[in-house]
Design brief:
There is one protein chain. The protein is of the alpha+beta class. It has 2 domains: about 80 residues, 2-Layer Sandwich (Alpha-Beta Plaits), CATH 3.30.70; about 160 residues, no CATH class. The chain has 10 helices and 6 strands; from the N terminus they run βαββαβαααααααββα. The strands form 2 sheets. Strands 2-3-1-4 form a 4-stranded antiparallel β-sheet, with helices on one face. Strand 5 and strand 6 form a beta hairpin. Helix 6 packs antiparallel against helix 8. The N and C termini lie far apart (about 55 Å).
Length: about 250
């Protein structure tokens, strides 16, 4: 069952993420899709939800006003047709290119040393990963924080964690690049990424169709097993590096 609503007051991607996150938390809501340009929200429900219940979800943000687009449920597919026609490669092209660039550059660094040293390569890879991913988050810090709050277990309880997390990634990138206290750097990485992956696993396993905030609010990447692999890779690398140091 899918209904469409008008939502006024949304002026940016941060507003879009905020409204989407608040509506997604309403009981029996399966998926929320926001069209920022049209000021519309499409809500997929497990069973009928009263409009007043959806309005109540936005009551702490009075600038967002939700009204019914029409009085009859709109028979539309849960996922827009244009998304269905996009291939997996096209959907994840940004993150694939980023991983490709980081991998290529770090392998080239090892080539310049005349031998491939795995520990050094992992250190450089993680430096590149955190620096690049924090860069995209900082392009629209508020938009990232709002999107991250939709699924991260810490950000759901503390709004400021999304802001702190972006700078934590930046600090980790610099730490790996400069070889600052490798043991402490890898411990922090392991703990931060381990906590982060919990919300991702819950979202994917519950089949909630929401936006992944790994590249901030710049790209519209869906949450999927790709996101799990991304975080698991950082956890695995930091774990291996810690085992070799301790």
């Amino acid at each position: 069952m899918t209904h469409q609503y008008k939502v006024s007051g949304m002026t940016c991607t941060g507003c879009q993420a905020k409204v989407q996150g608040l509506l997604a938390q309403v009981a029996d809501v399966k998926n929320v899709s926001i069209d920022l340009a049209k000021g519309e929200a499409t809500v997929e429900m497990g069973k009928h939800i009263a409009t007043d219940d959806l309005k109540a979800a936005l009551r702490d943000y009075p600038k967002y006003q939700l009204t019914e687009a029409n009085h009859q449920p709109k028979a539309v597919a849960p996922v827009p047709v244009e998304e269905e026609t996009i291939s997996w490669i096209e959907t994840y092209k940004p993150i694939l290119l980023i991983f490709g660039f980081i991998t290529g550059i770090t392998v080239l660094i090892e080539y310049m040393h005349d031998e491939f040293f795995w520990m050094r390569w992992m250190n450089h890879f993680m430096a590149g990963f955190f620096l690049v991913f924090s860069f995209f988050k900082l392009l629209n810090l508020k938009g990232f924080a709002e999107s991250y709050r939709m699924y991260d277990i810490v950000a759901k309880k503390w709004n400021g964690w999304g802001y702190v997390y972006a700078f934590t990634e930046l600090a980790l990138g610099v730490a790996f690049l400069t070889a600052f206290n490798p043991v402490l750097t890898n411990i922090v990485t392991f703990m931060v990424m381990a906590v982060s992956i919990i919300g991702i696993l819950q979202t994917v396993f519950n089949q909630r169709k929401i936006k992944c905030a790994c590249l901030g609010a710049v790209f519209n990447l869906p949450m999927s097993t790709v996101t799990i692999i991304e975080d698991a890779l950082m956890i695995g690398m930091s774990g291996v590096m810690l085992l070799t140091m301790l």
